Amino acid sequence: xxxxxxxxxxxxxxxxxxxxxxxxxxxxxxxxxxxxxxxxxxxxxxxxxxxxxxxxxxxxxxxxxxxxxxxxxxxxxxxxxxxxxxxxxxxxxxxxxxxxxxxxxxxxxxxxxxxxxxxxxxxxxxxxxxxxxxxxxxxxxxxxxxxxxxxxxxxxxxxxxxxxxxxxxxxxxxxxxxxxxxxxxxx
Length: 187
What we know:
Elements: E1 2-8, E2 15-17, H1 19-22, E3 42-46, E4 57-60, E5 64-68, H2 69-82, E6 83-90, E7 93-100, E8 103-104, E9 114-118, E10 123-128, E11 141-144, E12 152-156, H3 168-175, E13 180-184
Parallel strand pairs: 3-6, 8-11
Antiparallel strand pairs: 1-12, 1-13, 2-3, 4-5, 5-7, 6-7, 9-10, 11-12
């Protein structure tokens, strides 16, 4: 088993939600439900970078990922147990903003993780997390309190064999979806 940090691929264009949504108090993805709170069917637009292609999965509003409708449909069985898909449009095309709700408040091995500040009493700025495998959530995607629920993490489970079917990392690779990259963390 491996754990990855899910990051945007800078080789692809980014998405930006309409300003009223982006600047609202609700544009915060910290493992709290946003369905029924975030405006339904808000609009977004891609960055103006002509040198970058459009992704299948886009980083939106510097906060989370957005999935084109066909991609969200294909991955719904993996995404929905980990969070909520919030509809919006890009030039009339349906997309879904992903709000991760799955989290762990005790999966990080504090003693073996590294922090920007660690004086023995105060730990701040998680740099390299180490995880306690038994405390990881059962979902493929999750967040942790030690980084203020900021980064999206992916558990790459492949045993038993049926875990591969519910594995975000494997699904992205199998479908060759673009717009995200994975960096391995420690267990």
